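Section: protein folds

Sequence with per-residue C-alpha cells
===
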Amino acid sequence: MQPIEFNGFAPDCTIVGKMTMFGDRLTDFLNGQERFLVHHLEFESLADGRVIPLDSISLERTDLLAVVASGPRGSAKQRVALQTNRLEVSIGPYMILGRIHAKAGTDAVASVLQRAPMIPLTDATIAYEVGGSIVARDVHTIIVNRLMIDWISPTTEAASLFPDVPIRSPFVSGMTRRRGDTSTT
C-alpha cells in the first residue's frame, strides 16, 4: 500500500490528486477494481479552466477515459521482450498518440483483446482543449480505458487491435470504417 500521484482524464475535466494504490502496477490496480478513492483533488473544467478542489471522492473506472501511469513499474523479473505498435486514439475530448506493447512474436491483436479494460500506452502524448486553449502533454505511460475509445488509427499491422472501434484513415479524407466494413462516411 503506497500513496501515488493521480492524474486522470474524465469526459469534462482533468483530475489531479493522491491515491493509495495496492499492488505492483497502476494498470493492474485500475483493472482489479471498479471503484477507488482519490484524495486532495483538483478538478479542472475543460470548458472554462475553472479549478474545483475536493477533499476526497470515490471514482468508478468508467468515470475515467485515461490515467497517467505513476507509482512502481512492477517486478523487473516478470518483464519480457515486447514488440510495439504505434497508434492514435480519440477518446472523448482527448487525442492520444502512443505505443501498445505485446510479447515479441505474438499477435498484438490477440494480446490486446485478451486484456482487461485499462490498457497502457507508452511514449505517449495526450492533447486536449481547456477553455479554448490546446494543451499537449508528453507522458512516459498513459493508461487508456479501451472500452471508451471513440476511434483508433493504428499502423497497418495493428489495424484490428480494437475490432469494434471505428478506424479512421489519415490518408483518405472523411473515411471511417469498422473492421470488415468497406463503406466510407
Q: What stands out?
A: The chain has two domains: 2-68, 79-168. DSSP finds two helices and twelve strands in the chain. The longest helix spans residues 26-32.
